[in-house]
Design brief:
Blueprint: H1 12-23, H2 40-55, E1 59-62, E2 68-72, E3 82-86, H3 100-116, E4 119-120, E5 124-128, H4 142-147, H5 153-157, H6 167-173, E6 189-195, H7 200-204, E7 208-214, E8 216-225, E9 229-230, H8 242-259, E10 264-274, E11 280-281, E12 284-293, H9 296-315, E13 320-329, H10 336-349, E14 353-358, H11 363-367, E15 373-378, H12 394-412, E16 414-415
């Protein structure tokens, strides 16, 4: 299998113009985007993407959960397609690049193939996965999860948003419910380009992150129960303060994560305090611990330590601790051959690079269950993402897309 020539590059200006044009759909209030899944804005973005794909000579297919698949034919009609893409939906206060770079970078790769008359043995498919963000309809990576068999279609279509609107009804309302069975398509491989959503690449001056693993995740919902009482009249030795238990467990989570460095993280995000009054000692606190790392044995050890030590800490101050795992997925190790092609492409093109573990979930993490998969990351300013101030440079976007182009062409096998 011959590697593409090192002088094969995408058109950076065309890619950047496409990113900026898509960003005009669903503008945020502070320079970013609010194009949440299955909103009118999502529908408008999908229409623009379809027009661009069809103008590039691709045919569009849509499955029953709204995943979009734009196909560039290969020379061998029996060869399985090589997929590349990400998602177009955003957070309510999202940036212009999270997900979108992966979709429009893939489109730019196809446009470059067309410009240069490049033919491949395998067909190439650009994909836009529905509801990666999971903000409006939980969970995240919903449609790729159905595609990979992690969820059933009926369960996904019955998800409801905060206003009680059903996923399946909203999908039909915006006109993007297709007729393809979800998951019927077979893949030769999949590549996903994404911004890092972290600070490592920028801090180290690296152009490309070669993603070797995704992080596994455990969400542990914890309840600490004490006794509500007056903050002014309850003597300190007689208090059963659930809030103090929260403080102890917060420090414990940090300690456990630090013990397993590098690439292990832990924090408490969502917290509900009851009765949440200024002059009442909390009688109950419900919160979620988020633990992540790329090694399954380490992840399990972190959770086990929390479950063993937290009840003892709480018992020591006369409050009760209960916990249950409410969200989980095991860490994916991406395909070594596909990862190698990403690394080789960065080398061939002269881009600085390093191996990296993805700290966030991505559609590629689910597709990794069913097909050889790899991810490419480019830096983002200050590691900021899920924020309207999210920013990347044109050069970073171009470098990531160049690597995507080369890795995909080597996998799809250039003809002639």
């Amino acid at each position: 299998m011959t590697a593409p020539a090192a002088n094969l590059r995408i058109n950076p200006d065309r890619l950047w113009d496409s990113l900026m044009e898509m960003a005009r759909i669903g503008p945020g209030i502070a320079g970013g985007n609010n194009r949440q899944t299955l909103t009118d804005e999502d529908g408008e973005g999908r229409h623009l993407f379809r027009r661009w794909c069809e103008a590039a000579g691709m045919t569009m297919g849509v499955d029953e959960i709204g995943n979009m698949f734009a196909t560039r034919p290969g020379e061998d009609p029996d060869a399985l397609p090589v997929y590349m893409g990400s998602h177009l939906d955003t957070q309510p206060t999202g940036g212009k690049y999270d997900g979108v770079l992966g979709v429009l970078g893939a489109l730019e790769a196809v446009r470059t193939m067309n410009d240069l008359g490049v033919r491949t043995k395998h067909p190439i498919v650009v994909v836009n996965w529905t509801n990666e963000e999971g903000t409006r309809f939980a969970p995240a990576m919903l449609a790729s999860g159905v595609f990979a068999g992690r969820h059933t279609l009926d369960w996904a279509l019955d998800r409801v948003d905060a206003k009680g609107k059903r996923f399946g009804d909203e999908l039909e309302r915006i006109g993007w419910k297709g007729d393809e069975p979800v998951g019927a398509r077979k893949m030769h491989a999949l590549f996903e380009l994404h911004i890092e959503q972290g600070p490592i690449l920028e801090a180290e001056g690296k152009d490309i992150g070669v993603v070797t693993h995704g992080q596994g995740l455990r969400w542990i919902e914890c309840t600490i129960t004490g006794k509500e009482s007056h903050t002014g009249s309850t003597p300190m030795p007689m208090r059963r303060n659930a809030g103090r238990g929260l403080a102890l467990v917060t420090e414990l989570v940090h300690e456990i994560a630090m013990k397993h460095q590098p690439n292990a993280v832990g924090a408490i995000g969502h917290i509900d305090v009851y009765p949440n009054s200024r002059n009442i000692i909390p009688g109950r606190v419900v919160f979620t611990v988020d633990m992540r790392t790329h090694r399954l044995d380490t992840l399990n050890a972190m959770v086990d330590e929390l479950m063993e030590r937290a009840p003892k800490l709480c018992a020591g101050i006369d409050v009760a601790f209960e916990a249950q795992i409410v969200g989980q997925f095991d860490p994916p190790a991406f395909d070594e051959v596909c990862v190698g092609r990403v690394r080789d492409a960065a080398e061939r093109l002269g881009y600085s690079h390093r191996d990296i573990v993805s700290g966030a979930g991505h559609d590629a993490c689910w597709i990794n269950d069913i097909a050889p998969t790899a991810m490419i990351m480019c830096p983002c300013v200050d590691g900021l993402s899920h924020n309207e101030a999210e920013e990347i440079s044109k050069d970073w976007a171009a470098a990531g897309t160049d690597v995507l182009l080369h890795a995909v062409l080597e996998t799809a096998e250039v003809v002639g």
